Amino acid sequence: MSELPLFTIDTELDGLSRIKLSSPIKLPNATGYLWNRAMVMQVNCRGYVNSQFMQPEPAKYSYAPNMEAKSFIQPEHSYFSHHPGRFFYLKDEDSGEIISLPYEPKRVQLDKFSFELGNSDITWLIEHFGLQITIKVNLTKEDLIECWLFSVKNLTETKKNISVYPYFSIGYMSWMNQSATFDKSLNAIVAHSVTPYQKVADYFANKQLKDTTFFLSDTPPTAWHANQKDFEGEGGLHQPSALVAENLGNVEARYETPVAVMQFQQPLLPNEHKTYQFLFGPVKDTSEIDELREKYLGHSQRQKAIKTYHEYISQSEACLTINSNNDSFDDFVNHWLPRQMYYHGDVNRLSTDPQTRNYIQDNMGMAFINSKQTREAYILAVSQQAINGAMPEGVLLHSDAKLKYINQVPHADHGVWLPICLSVYLNETADVSLLSEMITFADSSQEQSFICHIELALDYLLNATDRRGLSFIEQGDWCDPMNMVGYKGQGVSTWLSLATAYALNTWCDLCNEYNIDINQQKYNEYRFAAKAINAAVNKYLWHGQWFARGITDDGRVFGTDKDLEGKIFLNPQSWSMLSGAANEHQQLDMIEAISEQLITPQGVMMLAPSYTRMVEDIGRITQKHPGVSENGSVYNHAAIFYIYALYQVGQNNLAFELLCKMLPSLDNAEITGQLPVYIPNYYRGAFYQFPEQAGRSSHLFNTGTTSWLYRCLVEELCGLKGCASGLRVAPKIPASLQKLSGQRIFREAIVNFDIEQTKEVLNMELLLDKHIITGNVLTCLQAGQHYQLQVRLPKVSEDNVQ
Ligand code: CEZ
């Protein structure tokens, strides 16, 4: 492979970004992802694919070669030789040589390789055997189907005879019934199965399931093969025996593991090319295949589908575009971050019962893209609140949906998120009408205003405190697997106590800012309660240089220097800055302790040292591998809380430094192992215990980080934050960023801005369309109007506190 840069960031004609990886070996786990409201596929540069669809619960149509446990999408997904994938064997009939594209399973070194991630497509451009091959996949706006194009061109002066063999894995579908054969009338390999069940009731429940997987081509195959084991034979996937013969054997699978393989023998004259279209996906029955073929097969149908899907994904365009003279930073902030944020708000991590904290935070991000969706989501969330104020573990998005997995474990924090995340919705829209919406409860048809629902949630939190005024943790707070601190009903959480104080203060601030009509006594009660909680946290949980993480059922304070492992947790420190519990001295102490113990080249770890053995009064988190997920990884959701908190206390340089560490880039790609197209939920931590693996990406793009990161960029770094009277301007650019320009869409006004730091001014100066602005709120912005905003800031000092 020639020494091309590992990857490049190009810009498409439509201004959107295109990431191009030049090697399938250097970043073997590199992936991109595509989705629509009913399916998601994570595509690996070597050809492996992890995909699922909703019916309405998550289901597969391309399975692993053996029975798989149904679970939520896991971090650090591992690939293995028979992992589901979309491969193309290509035989040079003249030389007999066989390769596989895009790289797996034969792993032949290719003359040219490029794995390209676009906004709404994933493509490989490959050259080998004197052939130029393009492989492209896109999804559709609303259907459960993968649309593939395979194009091969003869670049040589001599005629070439080839066979192309798309090999789409179907895998082990069912222990009750699975089979596959070629259906001539559909020109498709059709694999039928029956979702296993034993209860009569499930027969009727399963009748609607899409238990059939099909692979259809626009070209009649020379031959086909639908039987996994027989296709491989003794040669295995690296040297499938079925490819030795001139033609595939047209072999069915009969209660044998299916596969979809077709053979297309194709002579190519010099400069001649041949293009194939393939459709792959789940259906309930073959009549659906016909409809999908009509809709998507054929040049014009394909162009229409690509255009519609492109428009669908392009809805992810958000309200900020920046130019910081750092192309990779700008590319991520302007394209890939809003795309990931939209994915979260659009498909709720492909769950029918998203955890309430995730649902509310993910929809906070949607306020920067499509605030109407945020409004609907918040109303739905409070409509599932109990009349006693308790918010549900998960928000049911479907009439048949049930609370599953982690949502069957009682967590104490779901009530804090609405008052906290509502501020972004109101700052972006000033839509106080939401607050007077009358909404029922999960367990009562009584209607109460949105304001009342918020206050019931806050009151429920305040009642869920112990004699010290600290919040009970039950079997977990924001940290899901911290399940044994309070399972006996006594353990308390420092983080949740501080988050409750922050939620109370945030609600009171919103009431002031938007003149929300709440009872003055209630308002005073909340301010007093927040103070009391902050005082209690300081009294019982400040230890030396930082705040402890909590107190167990048996009264043990943990998360202090006295602990061998889990000495310091990041969240209590961050949220003590947000709630106001930490004074300036404590802030400096904590920041120093965090810099010494938690900061790594890839960002800030959520705790250290990672636990290496079970701690029975803390729980499952301590059983996770050190440096993985909540057990001391660089858990980006916790890291962004810290960055947001640093901005609130004027630590703008450190905040920006840590924000840059969080973003995947060319510089850190060889460590993270990923391409800069999403923020992973974590990078491996345990930096001082397992440095070898530290920094590796989890490759899991489901994370609550995106909306908070976008909030930091819009409201803090650029400091273009909405308020009741307009757009408040208060940039927090670091000393390292001389200039920052861009465009901010605010309540449909288009504000082009230039922010620069200069010795010529001692205080911030604002010019709007060359008019000096007194104060720092732009109150006259009209929807649809364009404005030019110049912000001149006094020189920002290197030392952190501004
Ligand atoms: O799930 C996330 C949750 O979606 O863990 C976060 C929590 O705040 C998010 O709401 C921190 O605990 O159950 C487990 O052990 C998993 O680790 C989940 O906690 C975790 C998933 O892996 C997704 O990251």
UniProtKB/TrEMBL annotation:
Pfam families: GH94_b-supersand, Glyco_hydro_94
Keyword annotations: Glycosyltransferase, Transferase
GO MF term (any one): glycosyltransferase activity
Domain (Glycosyl hydrolase 94 catalytic): residue spans on this chain: 320-718
One record GO biological process: carbohydrate metabolic process
Domain Glycosyl hydrolase 94 supersandwich: 78-297
Taxonomy, superkingdom: Bacteria
Protein name (Swiss-Prot/TrEMBL): Glycosyltransferase 36
Species, as recorded: Colwellia psychrerythraea (Vibrio psychroerythus)
